[in-house]
């Protein structure tokens, strides 16, 4: 029997009375000092339950925070209301909106069409060669339904995983939403990742279907993609079908019975599909990110809490007006920014977005500005690395275009240096658009720290304050909050709706990576250094672990090292992130060659760079590889990356007294002087 139609507003039936956010929900660590003993037993403390601390009535700030999130969740359509906002008894495994049921795709698509907005543009899409497509919400609904029907025809059922490696084309969005609609967790893999990287992600998730394309446009050229994915799927028996979108017309290898063309399968499907509701904690997607070991972690996100926070942050951080704004996030859907701020957040908010397929300098360096002018982009969200690239190209380029539509500018991925901030503000923002510097991570799912546009006095280079509903602190080694003007580690001391729910298939790694560092306090350890300024505002200082940030992409030193040592000529390798004026950090590798390898450093290093690109992807190519006779190690055998960073950044080498052999640095320097 047909199920009752969706009833908008069901989500407002909540146990906690909705309340207006009060200043106390905006907890800036710099201004509110909670005694530590209170934190330990606070109901929000992740380990309160685990330690068997008797539960107490929630402290007022925690209750208000939950009420705040309940109100935000009420902006979504729920088929069944939740019974509890947060269940933290199994901390650090959170359950938000327990008992609630919803369909994420319905919330991103159908409900807008049902409310009469079918003709509103969801995406102004532009391909790198200049072709365009306009996709309204009604179009989106039809395409998502057809795709969902196609996936059903392949026998996929709730819970099956789908891997997606696609360029920035509308089918990528259709595929993600079709998965969401059917309760199939997707795992999107960035188009620039190698077959080996794709393979390990498919294997880890056990994906049954891979969705890809024949090729992708990159800097004006059509490059093969299907040929690469075939290399990956040769070793992945879990993949039963490969669904292929025709994008470039590139010739493709074909496996009869397994491979299917999108235009054959999807286009023939009925364009209606009735969505089923899923538990608020139903897995929505897995997204792999680099950690401190060589193996990427599958970060797991679920449905109700994730959608609540991405929608809320997208609306408030950019002050979104769905009827008038044209919003453009320049990320790739292969990263969390693309998931949360191209797909789920904007669509949940009924935004009109621009989606662009290609590189910013194809066919000319004004491409982004031309697109802003053509579509009247009012909210533009990008990464500091691109801003610094624009700076290098010169301000005369944006000056040729009418950028007066711009109202809000966003930044994400790495700390934005004040010079880039000012340039952004002057040359794109006409000295008036607020710049929203958003700090967050794949793990946090959504923006956590950002200035409210226009509300706070701007501070070039500071993400400033946790957004309302979020609590963050800067703490010392012991977890005690540092004072104003002091540095420490960034922690999140309260759970949040879009938090990761774990590492796919590895609960221990989840606890170990994020919760062990401050286990006695139950804080989430972000892996970033930060400081409070004299006003209590937060400044992010970069990673404190062995994770590099190259052009806003996270790459672990261990991942690159293991790629390097898999090359036969390499005996040992150490990798550091050295500061770089364009990319933030650049990868610098030090390698020891195996005995007997004739050292023609030029040849070896060129081959090694290609090898790393093949193993991981071009984004992981070292900027520089130095062949050295030894590596600096402590007595316990740990590589002292600090000293290598000194070499890579051409500084005086620091304190070497903890080295097992303090002459190693002289040896390295002498060798490098030789080869320079
Ligand atoms: O070091 C921080 C940096 O990027 C890391 C998260 O990387 P990823 O999971 O790939 O997500 C990037 C996009 C959300 C953080 O640990 N980072 C991100 N945004 C900022 C930042 N550092 C400083 N300021 C930011 N606005």
TrEMBL record:
Residues 559-638 form the AMP-binding enzyme C-terminal domain. Residues 63-108 form the Acetyl-coenzyme A synthetase N-terminal domain. The keyword Nucleotide-binding applies. Residues 1-61 are annotated as: Disordered. InterPro entries: Ac_CoA_lig, ACAS_N, AMP-bd_C, AMP-bd_C_sf, AMP-binding_CS, AMP-dep_synth/lig_dom, ANL_N_sf. ATP binds at residues 413-415, 437-442, 528, 543, 554. GO terms for molecular function: ligase activity. Mg(2+) binds at residues 565, 570. Its cofactor is Mg(2+). The keyword ATP-binding applies. Its EC number is 6.2.1.1. The modification N6-acetyllysine is found at residue 638. NCBIfam families: Ac_CoA_lig_AcsA, PRK00174.1. Belongs to the ATP-dependent AMP-binding enzyme family. Catalyzes the conversion of acetate into acetyl-CoA (AcCoA), an essential intermediate at the junction of anabolic and catabolic pathways. AcsA undergoes a two-step reaction. In the first half reaction, AcsA combines acetate with ATP to form acetyl-adenylate (AcAMP) intermediate. In the second half reaction, it can then transfer the acetyl group from AcAMP to the sulfhydryl group of CoA, forming the product AcCoA. HAMAP family: Ac_CoA_synth (MF_01123). This is Acetyl-coenzyme A synthetase. The gene is acs_3.
